[in-house]
Structures are given as C-alpha cells and as structure tokens.
Specification:
The complex is a heterodimer. Chain A is of the alpha/beta class. Helices cover 38% and strands 16% of the residues of chain A. In chain A, the strands form two sheets. In chain A, strands 4, 5, 6, 7, 8 and 9 form a six-stranded mixed beta sheet that branches. In chain A, strands 2-1-3 form a three-stranded parallel beta sheet. Chain B has a domain of 181 residues: MetI-like fold (Orthogonal Bundle). Chain B is built from eleven helices and no strands. The chains are: A alpha/beta, B mainly alpha. The interface between A and B is large, with 41 and 40 residues.
Chain lengths: 346, 274
C-alpha cells in the first residue's frame, strides 16, 4: 500500500515536472487524424528547436468547439473552407500576411484569394480536393460518368451511393439543376429537395465512411465521394478497375488550410511552421503519405507515378470551371436542415 | 432410448448456445488479431503475413504517446479513486439511514448522468478556473467519474461484514487504524479490487469526457483512434488492440491463478481450525 502510494506520487511528480519544466517554445498543432507524415514534425523540431505538441480531431465541429472554449492555446489548426469563414466571422483567427512567407510562392495562384479568405490574410492552403463520382469501370458505362445525371439514371437502380450529409447531397442536386451549390433561394432549394426525394428509390444507401467497403465489395457501382477518400478506393482496388470523375456541371471544391487561432502565444513560430509545411520537399513528402491533392504547384512534376496515375487529382482550369467552394450559409442553414430532414424521412 | 435422444438433443442445444455466445463475443476480436498480421494496408482482404504493423506501431509517435497517457491516466485515476472511494464507502456505511440514502443518491447521479454532460460541464469548470487543459485536468476528470463506481462496489462488502469483528479486534487491543488495515481491508478487499478494475477499464474506455477535458497535445487512445477512423482504420490500430487484448488476458490469467492459490490456502487454514 505504502509502496503503491509512493509510486503514484512519483508518477504524478514526473508528469507534472515534464509538463512545466520546459523553457523552449512549444507549438500546439491541431490537425485531422492521420493527416500528416509524422516524421515531418520530427524534422521540424530538429531544424528549429521548437517542440511540436501534436493533437488530432475528427471533424471541423470538434475542432471548433475545442478552440472556441479555450483551455488550450492552439498555435496552428487545419480547418476546412467553410469553417475558416465561420471562424473569421467570429474573430477567432490571427490575421497575418500570407504573402510574406518565404514558401507562399509555391502555392498555385488559383488557390489564393478564395471566398473563405479573399485577402489571403488568415490561411495558407494545406491540401485540397473535389467531390465527384467514384465508380466501378466494370459495372458502369464510363461515358455516363461525366454528368451528375448518372445518379438519377434508372440503369443504375440500387447501385448508387449518396453522401450522407445535407450540404453534400444538396450540392449534387443544385449542380445537376444548374444552380450554385451555395444557393439560398427557397425555390431552388425546393426543387433540389424534390429531386433528391424522387431519386431515393434508386439509391442503395446514404453513406459516409463505409462507401469504401461497399465499392470494393462491388455492392455498389457509383458513389458520391470526397476526392481524397475516393483516391483510397482507386489505390486499393486499382485504377484499372475503379475511376473517379468530377462531373461537367461542376461540383464542390474543398480546402483544408493552416490557420493561427487567436490566443496563440507563439505567432512567429506558428508562421514558421506553416511556412515549413509549404516548403516543396516537405510538401512532397507529406502528399506522398496522405495521398490527397496538394496546392503546392512547384512539386506537381515530382509526384510518384502512383499519385500521377489518379484521374482528376489535379483537374484542369476548365474542369474546375463550374466548381465552387462552400460558403457558410448563415441563418439559411435552418432551411437546409429542414429540407434534409424531409429528404431523409421520405 | 427416447430419453437418451432427448438428453443428447438437450446437450447439443446447450453446447450450441454456448458456442454461439462465444462466437458473438470473440469473433470480432479474432478478426482484429488476424488482420493485424495482414500485409494489405487496407485490410479488406488477406494478402500475406507480416509483422510490419507492429514495427510501424512502435514508430508512431502520436499513438505511442497517447498509449502512454492512456495507461498513466488509467493507473493513476483508478488507484486514487479506489483510495478515495473506499474511505467514502466506509463513511457512508456508518451514516444514519436517511443521510446514507441521500449520499447514495448523490453518488448515483454522476453514473446516470450522460457522459457528454459530465464532459462539457467539467470543461466549463476548468476553463472557468483558467486551468490549462491537459494531463492534470483529464486525470481529475477521470478520478471524478471513477469514484462512484468504487463506492458502489465496496459498499455491499461492508454490508456483508459482521460488525462484531471490528469490535472484537479493538477489544483485543488493536488501534482503529490497525483494525482498519488488518481487519476491514482484508474483509472488503474483493470489493476494492472489483472497484479498482471497473475504474481502470472505465478510464481506458472513456472518449467523451476525455475529449472535452484534455488539450495541449495530450490525447488518450480513444481520441486518437476516433480521429484516425475518418480515413479508414490503419492496421497499426489492430496491432495495438491485439497487444492490449493479450496483456489484459495475461493479467486476468495471473490474477485468477493467484486467487486460486489463495482460496486453496484459506481453505486449508479454515480446515485445520476445525
């Protein structure tokens, strides 16, 4: 008993002293789970003598709650586009001149000045992608895959997977109807809602993470999916069997970007970290691990053959022509919610 | 003839039912263990035997760090909660009936309370006191939600304990502290051990409360695994789960062996007294 108590005291003591006894700069970095090549963190620490405290979250909303509540002074976070917009609106981010970062020049021009950060003063893009159709070449007519119409085609009855989130599903319907996926017009929303309700008999399931299993086991032929997750299906099942496309009507284009939350005590070190992540050899190492699309245009030529073999990982300007980034709908989100409930309940 | 057939059928159904339960309970774990040796990165089909995931697991800083925090919090919180909970249980046991009832209800409330409420309110409390979220706050939260379980598992043992033996010990010259150590604790030790084990597993299991009460780079395993799940579970997680399962199994076997030995010993002593 006494020994046990002593042991506990020693353990508490050790933990607290290691937590408080550090003089060096400690950066609190908050990123998505499994979304970085972790050896990069070690390299960064070795090069700058800054310690990185790395923490992970599973969704934008989880991250938002943790930063909003305080309790941890996060220095760098990786929210997505619409969440950045929301955080800027709520004055949660430190503004800095992205162009002053040494490696900012490697970020492609088309990834700058986007709707969530028009003046490039809050964020530097980390990875990006699209929403599109992932399909099994053996089960579909590939010519159909260039349009959202495929998801509403009787031919694929019972083989269609939709994405189980209101904005992603409504975006498909808006785009098929030729509207903006950020539409806040009640009439357009009504049309989109009706379209999705009519489509329901054809749909095998509304899914998110299990889309991979359903595609690989050939239970489904086409699915709406985020490009990064779709690439995992392509890389595992083989690009000769599985394909990915961004329909010509346009789609959602998404970004995960690096920001500095207000409350950070090491803004300069945070900028150093963000700049380091944009350094070509670092970005290359990282994208080879994560296998999403990089906004770092200087390294596109150096990508491995495996990554180069993925279709639509780097769509041309033309193919991205009708693509849009999600905009925070503000109070209109209530209408989206209502429409979505009706769709799911029908 | 008929009866033997019936008893055979009876036996068959009995065994089949047991087997079915074991399959339901252990098939997922078997699959998980098998796939931790699978060469395929994605783990949907078998592509040959490998130990790569075990090597990669030990190289993964985030997982190893969270593993360390998980074990540290579980060991510390369960032992501290066991000490506090045992004393609290003894106190509650000796209260007058009405007060005891009130205390028990207060004790049960946190168990019935949804984790999310506990988590959010603890976070609010810590932030209100301007505490930096991290190891200490997570530890405090775990101790807090563990105490009621310890109290609940120690109380029945106290109730079973004959009141006289404590008085007998003190009559024979034992100081209260000596009597506590040599009489009460051995008598209620099964309850204490059960309480400590429940607290330990509750702590390792917890996601919701930990998520809200930690920060500054401190995560436990459930937070790390959950945040990784978005991109498809990595076989490293299978490898880790396998190691944890095997260690718990070994621990259980050792404890059982030890208890088996002890119960034999006490049987012999009791027998010789007769």
């Amino acid at each position: 008993m006494k020994k046990l108590l002593l042991l506990m005291l020693v353990a508490v003591f050790m933990v607290t002293t290691t937590a408080c006894g550090e003089e060096q700069v400690v950066l609190n970095v908050y990123n998505w789970g499994d979304y970085i090549d972790e050896s990069i963190l070690k390299d960064f620490e070795a090069e700058y003598g800054i310690k990185v405290n790395y923490e992970m979250f599973a969704s934008n909303e989880d991250m938002y709650v943790k930063i909003k509540q305080g309790g941890t002074k996060y220095d760098v976070a990786f929210p997505s586009d619409y969440m950045i917009e929301k955080m800027v609106n709520e004055d949660m981010l430190v503004s800095f001149d992205a162009a002053s970062l040494e490696n900012y020049k490697h970020i492609g021009e088309k990834f700058k000045g986007l709707s969530y950060d028009i003046n490039n003063e809050y964020s530097v893009p980390y990875l990006w992608g699209t929403v599109g159709l992932v399909y099994n070449r053996e089960l579909v007519d590939e010519a159909d895959m260039m349009s959202w119409d495929a998801l509403f085609d009787e031919k694929y009855n019972g083989q269609i997977l939709m994405y189980d989130s209101q904005r992603d599903s409504l975006a498909v319907a808006f785009k098929k109807l030729g509207y903006s996926l950020n539409s806040t017009d009640p009439k357009e929303l009504e049309e989109a809602k009706q379209l999705l309700i009519d489509q329901k008999p054809l749909v095998l399931a509304y899914v998110t993470d299990n889309i991979k299993d359903l595609m690989l086991s050939e239970e489904a032929a086409i699915g709406v999916d985020y490009s990064g997750d779709a690439f995992q299906i392509l890389l595992e099942g083989g690009t000769e069997k599985f394909g990915y496309s961004v329909p010509k009507e346009g789609s959602n284009m998404w970004f995960d970007a690096m920001v500095i939350p207000k409350g950070s005590e090491h803004v300069e070190a945070a900028k150093l970290f963000i700049d380091y992540m944009s350094r070509p050899e670092v970005a290359l190492k990282n994208v080879e691990y994560v296998q999403y699309s990089t906004p770092n245009v200087s390294i596109l030529g150096d990508l491995s053959e495996e990554l180069k073999s993925i279709p639509y990982a780097y769509p041309s300007e033309e193919e991205l022509d009708h693509c849009e980034v999600f905009v925070d709908p503000g109070a209109f989100v209530e209408e989206y919610n209502e429409a979505w409930v009706e769709i799911k309940a029908n | 003839m008929v009866t033997s057939f019936r008893s055979k059928l009876h036996n068959f159904i009995k065994n089949f039912y047991t087997l079915l339960i074991f399959i339901f309970l252990y098939a997922p774990i078997v699959v998980l263990i098998v796939f931790s040796f699978n060469a395929s990165k994605y783990g949907t089909q078998w592509e040959g035997f490998t130990l790569d995931w075990y090597i990669k697991l030990f190289e993964d800083r985030a997982i190893m760090k969270s593993f360390y925090y998980t074990v540290a919090v579980a060991v510390l919180s369960s032992s501290i909660a066991t000490v506090i909970g045992t004393f609290a249980a003894i106190g509650i046991h000796n209260m007058k009936p009405l007060r005891r009832q009130v205390m028990l209800n207060i004790n049960n409330l946190p168990i019935l309370n949804p984790d999310i409420v506990t988590g959010v309110s603890m976070m609010a409390l810590f932030v209100f006191f301007k505490a930096q979220l991290g190891f200490i706050t997570m530890l405090l939260a775990h101790i807090t939600f563990n105490i009621p379980y310890v109290i609940l598992s120690v109380l029945p043992k106290l109730r079973q304990m004959p009141k006289d033996i404590l008085e007998a010990a003190m009559d024979l010259g034992a100081t209260p502290w000596y009597a506590f150590r040599k009489v009460i604790v051995p008598e209620i030790s099964p309850g204490i051990i059960t309480g400590a084990l429940i607290a330990f597993t509750m702590s390792i299991d917890d996601f919701v409360i930990s998520f809200f009460t930690t920060g500054n780079g401190v995560s436990n395993l459930s937070i790390v695994i959950y945040s990784m799940a978005r991109r498809g579970l990595n076989p490293k997680i299978n490898a880790l789960s396998t190691i944890m399962f095997v260690s718990v199994l070994l621990l259980l076997l050792i404890v059982n062996r030890q208890q088996g030995k002890e119960s034999k010993k006490t049987y012999r002593i009791k027998g010789s007294e007769m």
